[in-house]
Structures are given as C-alpha cells and as structure tokens.
# Entry
Amino acid sequence: MSEKKLRVLSGIQPSGKLTIGNYIGAMINFVALQREYDCFFMIADLHAVTVPQEPADLREQTEMVAALYVAAGIDPARAAMFVQSQVPQHAELGWLMTTLSYMGELERMTQFKDKSAGKEAVGAGLFVYPSLMAADILLYQANLVPVGDDQKQHLELTRDLAGRFNHRYGDLLTIPEPYIPKVGARIMSLDDASKKMSKSNPNAGSYIALLDEPDVIRKKIARAKTDLGKEIVYDPQNKPEISNLMSIYAHCSGLSLEDIQARYEGQGYGAFKKDLAEHVVATLEPLQRKYKDIRASGAIHDILRDGAEKAMAVAETTLRQVKDLMGFLLPRR
Ligand code: ATP
Ligand code: LTN
# Structure
C-alpha cells in the first residue's frame, strides 16, 4: 500500500556562519525527517535581507548553507534543497500573506521586537518577515515544520493566517504543526545564557560556528561563561550557563544529562569543559571534512537547480489555487 507521504518544509537564513545552535535546534531534525517525509529545505535568502547584507557575503553564505546541509546529511536525492529567491512564488505569496496579516499581530512578534530594539531605522521587511515565512510553509502545504524554539511564535501566526485564508476564501491551505526538539531547542549564547546563540551576534566568542577550527572551538569553550559554584548539575533556573553547556555535551556525546552529571560528580568545570570541547570537535570534524569536499566538487549548483525545479512545481500549483480563490483573473492556459 503506498500512502502519500506527509510534507516537511523548513529553512535557515544565510545571514552568517551557521552555529551549533542551528545544527542542534534544526538541522539534526531535517536529516532525521527526510527518511519518512517528503522534504523541502530552503535557504532563506529573502529573509536574510531583512537586515543589511554585503552582496558578496550573501552569495558566499548561501553556498555555504547549501554545502552544510549536504555535509550534515541531507540527501538531495530524497529532499529538495533550494534557494528561496530562485523560486519566485515565495515573494508573490509573501505579498498576499502580508495583505492578510494584521499590524497588531506582527507587532507582537518577539523576534521583531528584539531585532528592532534600539535601532533608529527599522526596515519594513523585518516587520513583515513572519508573513513571508507563512508563505514559505503554506506554498508546500507542509504538515510539519522542524524549527528551534524561537520560531514557535512565527508558526502560530502561520497557522492563524492559513485558518484565516481558509475561512475567507475556501478550504485550501494545510495548517502546519511545529516540530521542536525536546532537548536543544534553545542553545544559549556562550557569553550570556539569557540570550539564544545566534549567528548574527557580533561577538564570535558567543557562538560555536560549524566551520570553526578545532583550536578555535577549544578556546571558545574554555572561555565560555560559567555559573558560581563548581558543580556540574542541570538546573537551567539556577545554573543557566552550565546547563547550556551540558545540553551541548549531551548532543555531541550521545550521553543523557543524568549520565553527564554522574560522570563529573566531585570534579570542577575545568575537566568538564576540556571533555566537552573534544566531543564538539569530534562531532564537527566529519561534517567539516564533507563540507570541504562538497565545496571543492562544485556539485552544489546542480543540486540547487534541481531542488528549485522540484520546489517550483509544487509552489506554482498552490499559488495558482490561492490566486484563483482570491479572485485574481488568471491567464488562460
Ligand atoms: P539570526 O541570528 O541571524 O537571526 P539564527 O542563528 O537565529 O539567525 P536562523 O536562520 O534564524 O538562525 O534559524 C535557523 C534555524 O535554527 C531555526 O529553526 C531556528 O529556530 C534554529 N536556531 C537558531 N538558533 C538556535 C539556537 N540557539 N538554539 C536552537 N535552535 C536555533
Ligand atoms: N524564520 C526562520 C527561517 C525561515 C523558516 C521559514 C523556517 C524562513 N522561512 C519557513 C521554517 C519555515 C528562522 O529560523 N529565523
């Protein structure tokens, strides 16, 4: 019996060097889901330009994210990998979703509040970012969206917009569910565990980039902030810094938080940090090797071309149905 596979869509912005937070919060799940779902993984370049990007950097970072997808284990034969701006239906449905969005609900988005705080000139793109993200998801009629915890609110808005569309114009759009990891959905900054680790943080010491050299990783972990005291216990409330390092440890070693706690009983932060650095280095080493091979092969361009073609076929079908229901005059075929 061949049942239709459920759909998955997600994306990462090429707005800097991908971090271990992107990896643990999102990419590991992309790789896990591709076996059972019909997957679309996007490089969200139209989202990245909601804050200024140097053109040469944007191009380089776009290729970098694509190669990291493959290096992390995304199989282009199973999952469509594509660049958002190469599938123009995103921009078009993005506009339609903007017209369906309310100012009030966009004003409540914490990502907008964080990214616009203290800025003199705030780009309008940053404000309507969630409407474009809704379009990304709804174009593919995605059932599941693997993301880190910080995107939960955007997913809620996507669900509201899909419901609003269906109510107003007819039942067309699939209401998506977020898919958020139980541990590691929110990896925090190494210099401040009250902020999420972010690739656009100007302090490179605050994140571990997936392509950081082993010695850089060792240094960053050695300098990572720790809490008062010296016990290795998982207690995000009272020991946020060490708890964050423990979740990274758990992901890179395969050990549970309890195992880690038991292993370092009676030992200080020094021994723990040394071992943590080696686990992170060992996790990233094969990924970095694969990354270099892929970049050197130049294969990424063909992969992205095929991915965009596959994505466009699905996206165009939905866009046409949306426009028809909304009353746009469609060209005769
Ligand atoms: P930026 O800081 O430039 O806004 P970012 O590092 O938050 O970017 P995104 O491209 O916005 O990265 O996010 C890609 C995916 O990685 C999303 O699913 C997001 O939830 C996830 N993610 C990002 N940072 C973390 C983190 N610190 N912990 C867990 N998941 C994360
Ligand atoms: N806003 C996301 C990136 C993103 C995305 C998407 C994620 C853009 N479009 C669609 C999931 C589905 C972020 O991680 N900041």
In short: The first strand starts at residue 7 and ends at 12.
